[in-house]
Design a protein that fits this description.
The chain is of the alpha+beta class. Helix content is about 60%, strand content about 15%. It has 11 helices and 5 strands, in the order H-H-H-H-H-E-H-E-E-H-E-H-H-E-H-H.
Length: about 325
């Protein structure tokens, strides 16, 4: 402890600099406020989840827990461990390719012709300028899955292949599960329609069946769209093709660079640095009630140590 006090007393300027640096870099938000904010966000998230659970559709609540009408329309459960044969598997094949060509414009036009010959489509095209008058292209192409290998071979011959990747994803389990769920819902819909055709004087039962029927029909449509999307992804492969021009002298990240723009950017950086310095100085000034007392205490400690070293106490004999 004494050594620490002596060090602080002898290095007063360094101590003041350390305190000023801590004040200048002190975060604008206190840990307490940050913690309180996180707690409030967690509570809000919990409230949203609870509300979603409370608003769960009647169909979901009736699965095994309801009674009356719900038990009457419960469909049989299909086995979900169905293993299809190899020829029935649903495989999604996608690829990405980067090719360096001498003329990107000519290569893009040739690709458009080839894709039309494959009965494919270009779903997305993005270009950016590499140097004045020269563009680089990123294309998203959908081609029939059976023509993917041929398309990749043709695209590669247009220039120098820089990178290539082919990905295959087996979605058979997802597809089969969706089909099983769709069959369950269709059986449930048919039973609901049978109940709707029956004559009853209980209006509450009729309204409940109507709500169930609307919910089931919406879910059936969603599953049908999912199956259609799976079929499209299996039938058509996606190719992410990048056409890069051959490098030449003068290629750099910003083709629009000029001395005037560079000068403006440098001046803006200087103004930003001066602003940061002013903000730090203002922060130190605002925190003066904290660091001035600390400075006075350090000055008193330094003065006490100097007097003690200059005028040692003499012991009387």
């Amino acid at each position: 402890m004494k050594r620490s006090i002596r060090w602080v007393g002898k290095n007063l300027i360094l101590s003041v600099a350390i305190v000023a640096g801590v004040i200048a870099l002190w975060p604008s938000h206190s840990p307490g406020l940050y913690l309180a904010k996180n707690v409030m966000m967690e509570q809000a998230s919990f409230g949203m989840d609870h509300a979603q659970n409370e608003s769960m559709p009647l169909m979901a609540k009736s699965m095994g827990r309801g009674g009356g009408i719900d038990r009457m329309i419960m469909p049989p459960v299909f086995a979900d461990d169905f293993a299809p044969e190899v020829e029935d598997r649903k495989i999604v094949r996608n690829a990405s390719l980067q090719v360096e060509v001498s003329d990107t414009e000519a290569a893009r036009k040739e690709i458009e012709q080839k894709v039309a010959g494959f009965q494919g489509h270009i779903t997305n095209l993005h270009s950016y300028e590499v140097r004045p008058g020269v563009l680089s292209y990123n294309l998203t192409i959908r081609v029939p899955a059976k023509s993917l290998n041929l398309a990749m071979e043709i695209f590669t011959k247009m220039g120098v292949k820089k990178s290539e990747s082919i990905n295959e994803q087996d979605i058979t389990a997802q597809y089969t599960d969706t089909e099983s769920r769709l069959k369950n819902l269709e059986i449930r819909r048919d039973r609901l329609r049978e109940l709707m055709d029956r004559k009853t004087d209980n209006l509450a039962d009729v309204l409940q069946i109507d709500r169930e029927l609307s919910t089931v029909q919406n879910q059936i449509e969603n599953f049908e769209r999912t199956l259609t999307r799976h079929d499209t992804n299996v039938s058509f492969s996606t190719v992410n093709l990048s056409l890069q021009p051959e490098p030449q002298i003068g290629d750099f990240s910003s083709p629009e660079w000029t001395v005037k723009k560079s000068w403006k950017q440098s001046v803006n950086d200087l103004i930003g640095s001066l602003k940061d310095i002013f903000d730090s100085g203002l922060r130190i000034l605002v925190f003066a009630p904290i660091w001035i007392p600390i400075l006075l205490v350090l000055w008193a400690i330094q003065r006490f140590i100097r007097r003690r070293n200059c005028c040692p106490i003499q012991i009387k004999k």
